[in-house]
Specification:
The chain has 257 residues and is mainly α. 81% of the residues lie in helices and 0% in strands. The longest helix is centred in the middle third of the chain and has 36 residues.
Amino acid sequence: MNFIGMIPAGFAVGLIVGLVGVGGGSLMTPILILFFGITPKLAVGTDLLFASITKSVGVWVHHDRHQSVNWTIVRHLAYGSLPGALLTLWGMNSLPTFESHSSIQKLLAIALLLTAAALWFGNHFKQKIFRWSERVGHQPSSLWTVFTGIILGVLVTLTSIGAGALGTVVLLILYPHLKIKNIVGTDLAHAIPLTAVAGLGHAHMGNVDYPLLLALLAGSVPGIYLGSRWSGRLHEQTLKFILAAMLCIIAGKLLME
């Protein structure tokens, strides 16, 4: 395997994550499967540890420069997502059909389509929910936040996708009065323990390629650092539209494999 070729892929994905706050698992896992021939379960496991490290860099930049992480929301999400991830890992270990290539690829394709929809319609949902919350005096419930964490924990552990765009859209719905920088920073912060726990569980099952992980990190760490510092200078909605279109194309390729 040509690990040197993985470095540019890691840099490109890290740059996108830094710029728009999403796209890590949504891009990296399909890239590993479709373009580098990595098996789905190995791609998911490796990408989860990859995500936990790269997102740590993004959170450091967001919190240090923007003070944009709401740690109370992070804690409530983790109350649901970490147990959800652990239960999913137990299920994967007990039910081998969860780890079949075809099952993982179908779940990946579904997660990619959901992520694309979240990218396309996220702002529309935010405007609708904001007007509704203004009208009825909506107050977010910590129980709904915990329930959201459970769903994200299951989805991310199975596919490595969902902690970014889907998490962002749900937070926009639950907390429409938060600024977008707080949504992005909080979502990134929550993704770190979730992807770490899920990734370590996959590692325990032998689903992590460590030389591949190091090659991806060599490219992604500078990529996400630069992207986080450049965020806000480029037209975010255009980037998200392009990313969503790419995800739809990739989902179609996964379904046809």
